[in-house]
Amino acid sequence: MIELTDTNSSSIAAEFVRSRTRAGSPAMGMVMTLVIVAPEEDAAEAMAAAKRASREHPSRVLGVILGDARGAAQVNAQVGSGDGWGGETALIRLKGEVVKHAESVVLPLLLPDSPVAIWWPTSAPRDPAADPLGALAQRRITDSAAVPRGKSTAMLTQCETYAPGNTDLSWTRLTPWRALLAAALDQHPLKVTGAKVTAERISPSADLLAAWLCDRLKIEVTRGSSEGPGITEVTLDTKEGPIRIARADGRLATFTSPNRPDRPVALKRREVPALLAEELRRLDEDDVYAEVAQRLVKLRGSK
Amino acid sequence: MTNTNPLRDPQDRRLPRIAGPCGMVLFGVTGDLSRKKVMPAIYDLANRGLLPPGFSLVGFARRDWADQDFAQIVHDAVKEHARTPFREEVWNQLSEGFRFVSGDFDDDDAFDQLRRTVEELDQKRGTGGNMAFYLAIPPAFFGNVVGQLKEHGLADPGADQWRRVVVEKPFGHDLESARELNATLAGVFPSGSVFRIDHYLGKETVQNILAMRFANNMFEPIWNSNYVDHVQITMAEDIGIGGRAGYYDGIGAARDVIQNHLLQLMALVAMEEPIAFDAESLRLEKQKVLASAQLPARLDLTTARGQYVAGWAGGEKVGGFLEEEGIEKSSTTETFAAITVNVETRRWAGVPFYLRTGKRLGRRVTEVAVVFKRAPHLPFTQTATEDLTQNALVIRVQPDEGMTMRFGAKVPGTAMEIRDVNMDFAYGGSFTEASAEAYERLILDVLLGDPPLFPRHEEVELSWKILDPVIEHWSKKGKPDSYDSGTWGPESADKMLARDGRTWRRP
């Protein structure tokens, strides 16, 4: 890691080239730029998650820490490559007036022609697509379950301001659940008459799952509360009896279905790096999430 | 399925494919293949949540074991060889479905027991009557086993059920035996239910050949005899035959590797664009390439074979092939084989495909190198381009999967001096939990009934048709040439290319 104090974008870019040359391999194999916007206290953890995700998606990772916007503008950066990274990385600390113009720092550092993804590991702007940094990216990743306060409201806000390219890790967390539920209906092609999602009292993922089931199955989905962790049970009612997936410990679920023996199935809660890697696998619009977001807004509005 | 599942949406590409209710019967549980590849792959699939709830694994072998003993074998294999971290809860869930049936392949009682076990699993675990039979055993026993399966009603699925059989190479040792083998399997299982595993075809890089060729516009225009000079396909191993003497002696490098892996790679590189990326369309195109492949008239000038002798490989002193345990001193089995194949189509007329493979070569590498013709006119002086050879595009299959482009560039600081340089592309992903190992991909495809990546018997037979005359020619010629361990093969291989005015790449 090279420390650059009171610097600017072109110096950071020059340092990227120097560090590549120093590593003995001036070629670039990176496939995208990932911008991470985080407060100082969350930055280290977010960068560690990006490091693990970068093994699957070699990227230029730009960590942007927005400091106090008062006073004289200053840009400090730590630039590095190698050391377990699949690409290269810069942690950029902004303070003073430049905090309001962070996009001017990031824009010159985007890799030519390749896609840009942006990730807010904790608090995100109300409308990510309208955010100046968010506007640079075609994939905007938020995480409503990670905001410090008002997770459900945060989820609803993200759904309301949905724009093509937006996505939320609360949605990503659902993939194994949704896969299992879809597989259950592959095995039991029955009409579902009702459904219930039980989870921690506040769980953006559970809200999305209920909205997804409601949207796809055209039924009312009730929501139950439990101690968690996360989602603990999903039940689909059919005329032959319930299809139930129950997971009490966040690791192993029990799969119950009509006329079949109960079966255990691995359903482990995933860590952030795995979620991030899944998000970066597809960078086009997620149409299913778009519909679910719309449905969630409608459901909340009617209450 | 006529009912469409409301939870499935073609737009929803996040949802992984999970196999429907099913189980697998594994024959030959103590072999290397089972322990190093199949069992770990099954665990890795379970760990990634891609196996159906209730998936069951039945081991069949001539051992006096209980279910727990079998579970212990799988446990050790998984601990040692699995790619993903060991999780107790996944293991517990998986191991509940382990059963073991003890018996010989001609033991009727044992197969009755196997049928009862399969039926019990349907009842208790909900495998739904869907079973894959994985024959990780020598091909000599295939006939016995599939015959028994048929006789004991294990090969006949009920309505809405499937029974599939999975076999590994070698798919015979010549055209005739391949046909026999196929007849044996086809007598019991319809051809759509026979899955031949060529693990090379499960590799990301190999699938990437198709993406590279058919999703891009910049390669296709030069992908023909106007621009391509020749193609070299290499699969080199740095190890000797190890403990596989019993299998290897009499088989040799050509049958072991060229017949399946290299000719399949050649077919993927040379084929025309398939009309769709499905099993049938791919097979049609590959088959056309294999059917139009011809050997040159003079096999003595266009092939080479060798046997490694003692020497130093990678800093270690190693013995020669004839000194390996279990190999006759007079063995004429080749450990290095190189052949020339001409693909007689308009696209490839006059472009030889050189295929080579061997053991105890310089390093472990598999690659396809497409070597281009020299530029028709060079506006530089001859001295300026002395170091410039031919442009090449190299598809690195393993290790270090990726692509290399080789072209000329000006040497900095000189007036005008042009020399070859390499440009590399390596996609990350080989280290992540989500990117599957070839066996995982293929086993999942078997359970899903998704056949694009499996060679069909027509392809196997066409490959033997290409190779048989070479092997016959060699069998009349006595002993193979020798080459020092740790080198790139016998001198005759270099001479073979030199006759065409070419040289082998050092991969």
Report on the structure:
The complex is a heterodimer of chains A (303) and B (507). By secondary structure, chain A is α/β, with parallel strands linked by helices. Chain A has nine helices and 14 strands. Chain A folds into two domains: 2-168, no CATH class; 175-266. Chain A has helices spanning 9-22, 40-53, 102-106, 151-160, 169-172, 175-187, 204-217, 272-281, 287-302; strands at 2-4, 32-38, 59-66, 74-81, 88-95, 116-119, 139-142, 166-168, 194-200, 221-226, 231-238, 241-246, 252-256, 263-266. In chain A, strand 11 (231-238) and strand 12 form a beta hairpin. In chain A, helix 2 crosses helix 8, helix 4 (151-160) packs across helix 9 and helix 7 (204-217) crosses helix 9 (287-302). The mean pLDDT of chain A is 89. Residues 429-433 of chain B have low confidence and may be disordered. With 507 residues, chain B is an alpha/beta fold. The relative contact order of chain B is 0.13. Chain B is 34% helix and 21% strand. In chain B, helix 6 links the parallel strand 5 (163-168) and strand 6. Chain B folds into two domains: 23-168, NAD(P)-binding Rossmann-like Domain (Rossmann fold, 3-Layer(aba) Sandwich), CATH 3.40.50.720; 201-432 and 454-498, Dihydrodipicolinate Reductase, domain 2. Chain B has helices at 32-47, 67-81, 88-95, 108-125, 142-151, 175-186, 204-215, 245-248, 252-270, 279-292, 299-302, 438-448, 457-475, 491-498; strands at 23-27, 56-61, 98-102, 131-135, 163-168, 194-197, 228-236, 293-294, 304-309, 311-313, 316-318, 336-343, 352-358, 365-372, 392-398, 402-410, 418-425, 481-484. The interface between A and B is large, with 48 and 46 residues.
Briefly, what is this?
The complex is a heterodimer of chains A (about 300) and B (about 500). Chain A has about 300 residues and is an alpha/beta fold.
